[in-house]
Amino acid sequence: MRWRLWLSLPLLLPTLCFALPEEARIPGGVALIPLPDASAQAPQVRYGEERVMVIPAATGANSWQAVIGIPLDADPTQPQRLKLDRGEISFAIADKAYESQHLTVPNKRHVDPDPEDLKRWQRESAEMKAAYRNWSEPATPVSRFSLPVQGRFSSPFGLRRFFHSGLDIAAAKGTPVLAPAAGRVVAVGDYFFNGNTVILDHGYGLTTMYCHLSRIDVKLGEHLDPGDTLGAVGATGRVTGPHLHWSVSLNNARVDPLLFLDEH
Hints:
Blueprint: H1 9-12, E1 30-35, E2 46-47, E3 50-51, E4 53-56, E5 64-69, E6 80-83, E7 88-91, H2 115-132, E8 152-155, E9 167-170, E10 176-178, E11 183-191, E12 195-203, E13 206-213, E14 215-216, E15 223-224, E16 229-232, E17 243-250, E18 253-255
Antiparallel strand pairs: 1-5, 2-3, 2-6, 4-5, 6-7, 8-9, 9-17, 10-16, 11-12, 11-15, 12-13, 13-17, 14-16, 17-18
């Protein structure tokens, strides 16, 4: 049995010091934006239609900063705008040219899905999008991760090929996949392209996804501690060999997992 202490967020947050993700103001990156609000409670901030993570700043009491995931399709020629309770903040991002890669997938249905496959994927995609947009407020926000599995980074984040908004980590089939931080299981399924998949909600718009698992060891709604086993590396779904596809989403934007790694 896991015991947890949940405290009022406004009372707890000002006393904590957070290890922040690495900032990279590019598509697929993270922006750390100081906020002008000086209230005792965290202000609500939106980036587009999505609410974003707000945590205490290191500059003093009643100071806040937004931790913002920048979508891969964000336009670097346009200012990025944050909506606050009172007013608006804009910030600029730089362009980023991601590499291209072409794969030969043995299962041709994963290359040219039939109409029933596409209907299935549409249902599964809606389920995953709902998980990405989940908002919860645990007592301690998560902003850094450990690697969920040890292995070679076989495909980096942002490769310009179908559905690759994550990091591929090559490892032997059956290698345990561990929760990189505390979180709650908000989606579990055997998806057409992703294979056996788990999505964890870490709070304040931060979620992680684990794909192509050979097995799933957790249930929907289960709370995990750092290091708990959530499944094992496999080769299910659209793959060319055993590996873990690990995605990190912040305010419903897929971002580079390396920016959150303690080991990075």
